[in-house]
Amino acid sequence: MKTIITTAKAPAPIGPYNQAVLSGNTLYTSGQIAINPESGALVLDDITSETTQVMHNILAILEAAGMTFNHVVKSSIFISNMDDFAEINNVYGSFFNDEIAPARETVQVARLPKNVNVEISVIAVK
């Protein structure tokens, strides 16, 4: 059994997928990019602002499922330039307590949707 999780506080899907799916106690989010859900505009001023918007989008989805970043057990980060890793990591890390930080991989990719610089997805367990 699965439950579709949606919220207006995160960007609407731009394809045939959902913001997140809850299966049992496990939440699987779709990759989030830096779309401001209120304006629909991309936040690409700098990598810090972009990553912050991504993390706020993820938080909105987690909250819609009754969860927080404390529930995240795994995350995947896709970046277009590994030179941005330190700044992305700094913003990402500010949303987690080091003692309960999730497992993670960070991968440089050739291209991301809408030519953004970072996309992040998470798996969380209640």
Automatic annotation (TrEMBL):
GO terms, molecular function: deaminase activity
Cellular component, GO annotation: cytosol
SUPFAM superfamilies to which the protein is assigned, alphabetical: YjgF-like (SSF55298)
CDD domains documented for this protein: YjgF_YER057c_UK114_family (cd00448)
Pfam families associated with the record: Ribonuc_L-PSP
InterPro entries: RidA, RutC-like_sf, YjgF/YER057c/UK114
Assigned protein family: Belongs to the RutC family.
Protein name: RidA family protein
